[in-house]
Design brief:
CATH architecture: Orthogonal Bundle
Distance between the termini: 21 Å
Radius of gyration: 17 Å
Number of strands: 0
Oligomer: single chain
Structural class: mainly alpha
Helix content: over 70%
Number of domains: 1
């Protein structure tokens, strides 16, 4: 699940760089750095969630992630 989010963010980064290059400015590349920072924060939060679920359940199964519901 997290890998698919990363692939989507990388596709958006590639599009931003390409459009910025085509337009002749560096605004797309500046926005890519912001997206990369958000992606790094998302990975850190996702890893923390996975570690917490593993500590509580002693196993990781996507089907058992309903524990996150209230």
């Amino acid at each position: 699940m997290f890998m698919s989010i990363e692939v989507m963010l990388n596709a958006a980064n590639l599009a931003l760089v390409a459009f910025g290059r085509r337009a002749g400015n560096a605004e797309g590349q500046a926005l890519v750095f912001f997206v990369m920072a958000v992606a790094a924060a998302e990975v850190a939060v996702g890893l923390a969630i996975i570690v917490t679920i593993f500590r509580l359940r002693r196993r990781l199964s996507v089907d058992d992630l309903s524990v996150m519901r209230w």
